[in-house]
Amino acid sequence: MTSDSDLARRVEHLEQRVAALRHNQLVQQRTAHTEQPPEQTVRLTLEQGDLHALCARLNALAHPVRLRILLACLNGTVTAAEFAARTDMGTTGQIYHHLRPLTQAGWLTSPRRGCYEMPPQAIQALAAALTACDGGLTAHEAAVGQLPVERR
Known about the structure:
Elements (H helix, E strand, L loop, with lengths): L3 H28 L6 H11 L2 H9 L4 H10 L4 E2 H6 L6 H13 L10 E2 L3 H14 L5 H6 L8
Antiparallel strand pairs: 1-2
């Protein structure tokens, strides 16, 4: 007989896989039309994408500790104990609090219990998100000579 916690863990894992598959499908749709203007890419994403999943994916990045976790995972698999040994990440409970949304959103995978790594597609997506959030010019803006709009 399977315990409730085991079932909950399995359901969570399946939900992560479904979200990753949906995200990959949307990425494939968008990359199939790489010549389209950015406005069309935004429209396609916001009209045809799963907005709840998109918000969860972006929200998972919204904490400095989570960004430090992703930075640590750039070099490969990192264990929860290695995160806990760092002084800038908080307690073990706080670390797991941050790992959960990162894995649920697909920024991290857990190849085995207590180990975390960034899949290649997550590294590419994170690079794009960080570049956009850093106020840098997009390739389209640079090509047409636009300056970034100042936000208040």
